[in-house]
Hints:
The protein is an alpha+beta fold. It is 16% helix and 55% strand.
Amino acid sequence: MERFAVKNRYISAILGSMLLGAALPGVADALSVKQFTLVSDPATAVVDVSGITMPPLPGQPLTIRESLVDRNGRSAGTAAIDCVVAAFTTTDLLLDCRAHFVLAGGSIDGHAVFLTSQHDYPAVVLGGTGAYQGVLGTVRVLDRAPGDETYVFSLLSLT
């Protein structure tokens, strides 16, 4: 349950900063929003589920390493996603995942908790480096299969 509380704190911080920016004169002018979409390349994806037994147990790992391309098919970076089983049913896993995206100009870190039956879910952006230093925001994950995802980034930063 603590992980859910942490996720709610991040979401609250993002929403609070957006409301604060709208409420204080001059602050909204200093905010910058950047949106872009990246797609994983299934041909390069390495999905490792070897740490998950049947039945699955909480804490067991699942990892995904994949190359990313932009909407024009040009190389855009890489993603390293490290998950652990948080809970399970007979047909589904609840995964707690951390993602690290290495892109041109810097990196972005994110976090998501989701059921594997979900194919459209949000992740929270926890920050970044380089061009993404200090960003907050969300990533909409459209998940067709492990290693075959579309990531829609919506980032908020102070300019």
